[in-house]
Amino acid sequence: MKQWWIKHGKSVGGLLMVYVLTTVPFLTRYPYNWDAAQFELSLQHFSIHMHQPHPPGYLLFVAVAKVLSFGLGNHWAVVAESALFGAIAVVLLYVLTTEFWPEKRWVRLIITLGFILNPLFWLYRETGLTYTVDAAAVLALAWLCLGTLRYRQHKYFIASCIVLPVACGLRPSLLILLGPLWLLAAWHHKRNWKFVLIWSGVCLGLALAWVIPLIILSGGIGAYWTDSTKLYRTVTQATSLFAGAPLLNVWQQIKLMISTLVYSWNSVWVGLVMALILGTLHMRSRQNWLASWQQNRTMLLWVLAWVVPAFIVYGFIHLGQLGYLVFLIPLGYLGIGSVLVWLEQRFTLWQLVVGLGLAAHAVIFLWVKPGYGHPEYRPVTVEQRWLQTAARLAPNLFKLNRFVLAEHDETVAAYETMLATADPATTVIITVRDVMYPAAANNLAVRNSELFRELSVLGPDFQVIELAPQRNYFLTATSAAMATTYDNTVLVPDSTHTIIVAAHMLPDSVMPTNLILGREQLPNVTSRYYRGIMDKPWTFLGYTIERPADL
User: Fold this and answer.
1) Which CA distances in Å does 226 have to 44, 452, 534?
2) d(CA 338, CA 356)
3) Residue/partner pairs of 16-21 with CB below 8 Å, 24 or more apart
4) How far apart are CA 486 and CA 475, in angstroms?
5) Using an 8 Å Cβ cutoff, are 380 and 365 in contact?
6) Which one of 135, 270, 434, 482 is at 20 to 30 Å from 87 when CA atoms are compared?
7) Where are the alpha helices (DSSP H) in 283-349?
8) Nearest one of 388, 422, 379, 428 to 547, comparing CA atoms
């Protein structure tokens, strides 16, 4: 280990410096989305039932954030943990490259630098979410599995029996994704089955060390199972092939997964295509295909154990957020390694070609503005029209940049300013879900921001309500309780005097007459909201909002 650090310490240090310089200045100042807000709320009150955090629990992730919160506060603790696991992923990817290209320093550096500059990996390490854990966990287990396959030394499998339960404690759903890699490593020790059984028992014991407390904190195994299965059915009914979702939905999900990976890989995907073409030309005959399989069977199984579970889960079951794909991104950069070697042997300016590709990566999240793809954007010049067309063709590409994070922070900050002027004892906050409004520029439908959980973080003393008219329910939350109600009558406290609707724009057809438009102007954004007096029951979005005294 000491010799390894003597040889590679400067490279790792330089890469981490690049990581810090491209990460720290852009860290989000407010919860990035619903899930990020729930992780922050879990540090105040851990409750699976209240989705603080949501099932299946993330107990170790919350525990690490709780420790960090003593010095950083709740928000920065969760964001710092995400950035920390991103740094671990960077180091582990470099370690993995030393297994494949031990004597090619520039190849190792370019691969790792490309990963650091990947827009998808970049965006999710800036937010208080768990997706950098996915990258760190899969890289750790992939390296240990590779060590087992190549060297058959016990230490690699022993370490994997420790890494797997810890990773699943941070993010339990990783068991499905990492399990095949661990099983592949176990299979290569099949002749020493006693050794495998003993360390499998250790692995199970470590898992139970967090599973049992999680179940206790969740109110027992029955309550935990009920909450987990309820969420699973809710999120997969429209996306999972196995839950009867329409085939069109599944196909759209697969296309989203592939297109997002291609866009985030940027120039790297060109290298993958080149590698595929070169490999196909090399293995023209059936005999060559067979020889290649026999020669590289172990490596192919290793790749399949990494890719296939993720492809099945994300393509055919559920792709809830683009951050899920951070699990697969490192493999793309490993795939280009052989292409870089091929380029080095044939082109004297290969560094320039690759350097331009890496620069293009940085351009995406540092300079490409999301406004070009916004329905309200009005292009004037030819360049602006071209950028708008590109943004419409690849909308996710234009979401992976610093302007998106800054715009979201400014929007939430404006709502925080608005809450500072309200009295929690007499004010109820209403947010909306799936409520669209026509854009002024081209009349395209725009979705209002869904800020229910973010405002729960910003205003813990307020009662916050989310109305979801297309889903026939509403949510209510305070600092210590959250409930889902399938009804169209919303009861608010008798003390309620003011209703604030946190929505950028309400269509005229749904807006109550007693709502007055308000604005909070910050340097880079204007957040709109509506304020009304609760002097009688309201009818709004198909709901009746009333106080017990009004009955």
Assistant:
1) 23, 23, 37
2) 18
3) 16/87, 16/90, 16/91, 18/113, 18/116, 19/86, 19/87, 19/90, 19/116, 20/87
4) 9
5) no
6) 270
7) 286-316, 329-335, 337-346
8) 428
Residue 489's SS3 state is strand
Q: With helix as H, strand as E and coil as C, how does 407-451 read?
A: HHHHHHHHHHHHHHCCCCCCEEEEEECCCEEECCCCCCEEECCCC
Element (H, E) at 208: helix 193-217
Place of tokens 């592939």: 258
Amino acid at 320: G
Phi, psi torsion values for 491, nearest 5 degrees: -90, 130
Give the pairing of strands 489-491 and 543-546.
Answer: parallel
Residue type, 217: L
Selection from 394, 398, 409, 405 nearest residue 370 by Cα: 398
Mean pLDDT by 10 residues, the chain (551 residues): 76 92 92 90 88 90 95 93 96 93 85 87 92 96 93 90 96 94 91 90 95 93 90 85 86 87 66 55 52 67 93 91 91 79 65 66 62 58 67 63 81 85 88 72 64 86 84 75 82 87 73 62 63 82 83 70
